[in-house]
Every structure is written in C-alpha cells, then in structure tokens.
Amino acid sequence: MRIPHSVSEIIRIALEEDIGNGDITTAFLIPEDSESRALIIAKENFVVAGIPFLKEVFNLFDGETKVDVFINDGSKVMKGDVIAEVSGRTRVLLSGERVSLNLLQRLSGIATLTNMFVEKVRGLHAKIVDTRKTTPGLRFMEKYAVRAGGGNNHRFGLFDGILIKDNHIEAVGSITEALRLASEGHHLAKIEVEVENLKELKEAVEEGADIVMLDNMSVKDMKEAVKIVHASKKDVILEASGNVSLENVREVAETGVDLISIGALTHSATAVDISMKIVK
Q1: Is residue 20 classed as helix, strand or coil in its secondary structure?
Q2: Residue 71 is part of a domain; what is its CATH number?
Q3: Same domain? 65 vs 162
Q4: Which of 133, 147, 155, 250 is the catalytic position?
Q5: Torsion (CA) 133, 130, 230, 170 in degrees, nearest 10
Q6: Which helix (H) or strand (E) holds 267?
Q7: Active-site residue 76, yes or no?
Q8: The domain containing residue 152 runs over which residues?
C-alpha cells in the first residue's frame, strides 16, 4: 500500500512530539553502533491493523531498519503471538517503539471492534460502514483499519460524497429543495439524504434520492421503510444510522437495510495491548 505524503507527515509529527530534540535516555545508555532485534508481541486476542504505518515509523527514522511481518493486517492473533520482528540500530528501535505501538494498538482496536460488528451480521445482506467521526488527522489510517476488520468505508470526507443532513435541510427549507439543488449542482455523484421519519423517507424517495439514511429510527420503522422502498420500485439504498450497538446490530440488519453506519467503530474503539521486546 502506498502511504500518502500527508499520512507520512502525520507520523513524522508524532515522532517529533515524542522525541523532540532527542531521546536522552537511549542516547545515554545505548552505543551509536549497537544493533538489535525486537519482537512485536500480542498481549491479548485481536485483529491486526496498521502494519504499513508501523513500517513507516521506522522508515522515517532509518531506511536500513528491517521489518519482517509474520501476521498480516486483517488476521486474528492470539495472546503471545509474534506479529513482526524489527531489526536494525538499537537506538532506532527504542526511539520508535512508542509511536509505532501507539498506531498499531489504536488501529488494531478499530479493526477488532469492526470485526465484532461484521461477525454479528454475518449471513445477512447489510454491510457495516464507518463514518467521519474519526480522530483529526488520522482518518486515512482509521478507515484503513475498518477495512482490515472486514468493514466498509463510507465517504472519506465532504468532498467525495453528497450527504444532505438535517442542518442542510433546515437551511434550505425542505428535503425536496435540498435534493433539487444537489441534483442540479452535480450530475455524477449519488445523492444521500438523512431522514428522521417515514414521511420524510417517502419525500426523499419520491424526489429522487439515491441513498436514504434512516437516522435513529426504531426497528419497526426501519422495517416499514424497507417495505416502502420495495413498493416504490426504485433502486434506493437504505442506510441505518444512530444508536447501533453490538447488542442490537443483528436486529437492525434483519430489517433488510443495505448499510449500517456506526460512528463507534472509530470514535469509541479501545486500543489493544501490544508490546515490543528487545531480544538481541
């Protein structure tokens, strides 16, 4: 995978934040010519995500550092598994340890949570998708982690998808007017509109929405929404959003919706536990 320059820059900033003018502990203790091997070890069970970014941490330090990967992104690991081995200058390994692990732990946490949701709806039509509720600056990496966990990406940002939300509708006056303006302004992108009830759903479908987001609707209303769309004979994608949890996601999927968007995949995932051990 090619890492965008902007993402490499984020990683560089993270290294600068951690190291500043220099890793004084390592400088005092470790000879400049010392070389070592270090193992990246899982300390619990999880789904791996973030290997390319771990590699980039050490690449930014020293292009001579070698990273041998034993378990690829998207794979499930067990406590005690060795994910990768990093070898090279000991100072580089020690100074890059925290940032590389922070990224790998964070992204693997996202992949693991995503995979839990994906497993809950296995066998059903609905796809699990993410949102824009990501850590500022880390969106590329966090959406990558969602894919590693078996999920799908929604639009990346405001520039690559038309999504008419409640505030847009309030600003222009109606769903109908919002859809008219969007369709006149762009003839290629699919247009999605957020609705809060079945009346708004019918309006959105009648006025030509390609995708309708069912915002915080009850399971009963989502089932009815699916019936309304089927009866319309229109090719409209239905997305369920709001208050979706591991406890209710399968029930939501069983309504027949096409997509289930979950902000928690990126804003509430817990980092997993990973360590790096020098083995010399």
Answers
A1: coil
A2: 3.90.1170.20
A3: no
A4: 133
A5: 10
A6: helix 264-267
A7: no
A8: 120-267
Q: What is the pLDDT of residues 37-83, one digit of tens each?
A: 999 999 999 999 999 999 999 999 888 999 999 999 999 999 999 99
| CATH code, domain carrying 255 | 3.20.20.70
Residues 100 and 158 in one domain: no
User: In the beta sheet, which residues pair with residue 66?
Assistant: 87
Instruction: Tell which residue, 279, 256, 266, has the closest CA to residue 129.
Output: 266
Among 194, 200, 239, 258, the one annotated catalytic? 194
Any catalytic annotation for residue 194? yes
Residue from 183, 181, 240 nearest 208 by CA: 183
Looking at the DSSP bridge assignments, the partners of residue 164 are: 193
Identity of the amino acid at 192? E
pLDDT digits (tens, 9 = 90+) for 75-108: 999 999 999 999 999 999 999 999 999 999 999 9
Q: Is 165 in the active site?
A: yes
User: Per-residue pLDDT averaged across 157-165, rounded?
Assistant: 93
Token pair 């590699």: residue: 55
Which residues have a Cβ under 8 Å from the Cβ of 156 and sit 6 or more positions away?
139, 143
Contact 250, 221 (CB under 8 A): no
Do residues 251 and 274 share a domain? no
* Residue matched to tokens 């990973």: 274
